[in-house]
Amino acid sequence: MIQRIQTLYLLAVSLLAALTFFLPLASFTTEAGTATFKAYELIGTDGVVEKVPSYLMFLMLVAMWLPLYIVFLYKKRLAQIRFCAVEVVLLLGVLVIETLYCYRLYTLYRESFEAFAAEFHWPLVCPLVALLFVWLAMRAIFKDEMLVRAADRIR
User: Fold this and answer.
1) I need a labelling partner for 31 at 20 to 30 A (CA). Which of 52, 71, 73, 78 fits?
2) What is the DSSP letter of 123?
């Protein structure tokens, strides 16, 4: 369980997903104020929540809790590998939706205001790093499975 390296990788994935969920992803500054984009809300230039990106919020919540569930499937390594593949798909979906929202907001504010500045924050790339950790966890789980199968053949 805890002594396995894939557990640390999966905990890192969960932590990176939590950082992406709670920290601001992008800020757009205009003469009217600053709009902040988070995974669960978009705070407009007037300080009011304008729109809640529900698809992104749902994907981020599932991507945040699934690795913690995978850790406790330590006796079912093949199920762990399958759930890691699901996590990869979720994180790719998060990356696509983040990119689409940021591009859409960037073009919206660029067309609406002459004085405009966009700032993209580091949590925007956390799902990409999490993909690397999921891949490393899948590889370690697969190695464990091969080790168990080899030990079963020897008996």
Assistant:
1) 52
2) G
